[in-house]
Amino acid sequence: MDGWCRLPYGARMLADGKIALVTGGGSGIGRATAELFAAEGAAAVVVVDLTESGENSGPETVELVRKAGGTALFVRADVAVEAEMEAAVAVALAEFGRLDAAVNCAGVAGSGAKIADMALEEWNRVVGIDLTGTFLALKHEIRAMLPERAGTIVNIASAAGLVPVPYLSPYCSAKHGVLGLTKTAAKEYRNAGLRINAICPGVIDTPMIRASAAERPEVAKQSREASGANALGGGFVGRPEQIASAAVWLCSEGASFVNGESMVVDGGTVTR
Ligand code: NAP
Fold first, then answer.
1. What is the number of domains present in the chain?
2. Percent of the chain with pLDDT over 70
3. Which part of the chain is the Ketoreductase domain (predicted)?
4. Quick one: how many helices (H) and strands (E) in the chain?
5. pTM score over 0.90
């Protein structure tokens, strides 16, 4: 971290003593969130991800947190497989005794095609990870938090959860769904002491966006032109830390009356 998040004059840190879990914590927004939880005083961060070694992997994030003086643990799990997600939350409880905060970042963009050309397999894959995977993470995180009657969860949706994005119908539909899921969860569990919010990032410079732009430049261009979104490097492109900052704040006491919110963090691209 470059110190931008540090609070002056010994102020209480945002994640003081919390046990936090981050899905998709090996890369991009999830990695920045795991690092920020630790920098803001979390007692431990559980990093859930698919990739078990190398660049942009869960273990690499754990190493970064540990080098900076924090405590972190990697658990390999596919968020789209209920038994694996359930086991990941169980590891957090077994190791650290409770779960105070969770940020669900795991996601994929999917390959681009218009709806008439979209393969059912690709639709099911993307919706399975981005929507059903978020549901499964949420389900088991809520179960872990209910006994304490306290806890905060943030689902990373997208600006694509609010506006259409041509050529990315599974992604766009899943992210719209994540917002409905988040609002429903917030209503269902507010009397149980939980807060559940979503963040809608704009274009953020992460491995996902770089890979999409590199692998499918024509689709990226057409989608961008059709939706009016900014090009990577050509407009308002955010950094993963800027989404992490919103996520860790939403999990903090400072956001104690914020519940069921879909917070847009995009530099003002999607204005409502
Ligand atoms: P990223 O760098 O690709 O990180 C996503 C992480 O999720 C990767 O570590 C990936 O692991 C992991 N993951 C994917 N499928 C998974 C699964 N089934 N189970 C567990 N982990 C899985 O992408 P990012 O840009 O940081 O995206 C994070 C979240 O922000 C996503 O939900 C994305 O939709 C959302 N978002 C991103 C942007 C943007 O412009 N970057 C904008 C709006 C919303 P592997 O690498 O091993 O597959």
1. 1
2. 89
3. 18-202
4. 9, 7
5. yes
